What we know:
Pfam families: DUF2000 (PF09391). The structure is a single chain. The protein is of the alpha+beta class. 38% of the residues lie in helices and 21% in strands. The protein has a single domain (7-131), classed as Bit1. The protein has helices at residues 18-35, 67-78, 90-94, 98-106, 124-131; strands spanning 7-13, 44-45, 51-52, 62-65, 84-89, 115-122. The strands form two sheets. It has a four-stranded mixed sheet, with helices on both faces. The protein has a two-stranded antiparallel sheet with strand order 2-3. A hairpin with a 5-residue loop joins strand 2 and strand 3 (51-52). The longest helix is centred in the first third of the chain and has 18 residues, at 18-35.
Amino acid sequence: MVAKYEKCAFVVEQDLAAGLAMNTVAALSMSVGRFVEGIVGDAVKDADGLTHTGITAIPLPILKGAAADLRDIVLKAAGLPDVFVVDFTAVAQSSRSYDEYTDRTAGLPTAELPYVGVAVCGSKSAVNKLTGSLPLYR
């Protein structure tokens, strides 16, 4: 697990079809939930005593950007020690197995990976610096 963060933003490639965009955010969310300590709050009980599984405890804006924006975020975030980044590529989205994804990715340089989504977690200022100019995904 990595350190507890204040904010996590998801950026989706702006030309993805809605279903692929949802799949991208879902895949990124799984990794963020696994590796970012404290992002999921404790379970809560309602007035009837029914327990509800914990949900996110920090802001999670969903933004959109061009493929070049995603690549820039990945490359800039990789050099920041207090930022956690997860990227998702068209290679991952189109692979039928994790082994296929691993093999296909191994043959591509970072700058040539077809990014379709990225999640960036860190301090509010760090996340805003990386993603602040991008619009909300609507």
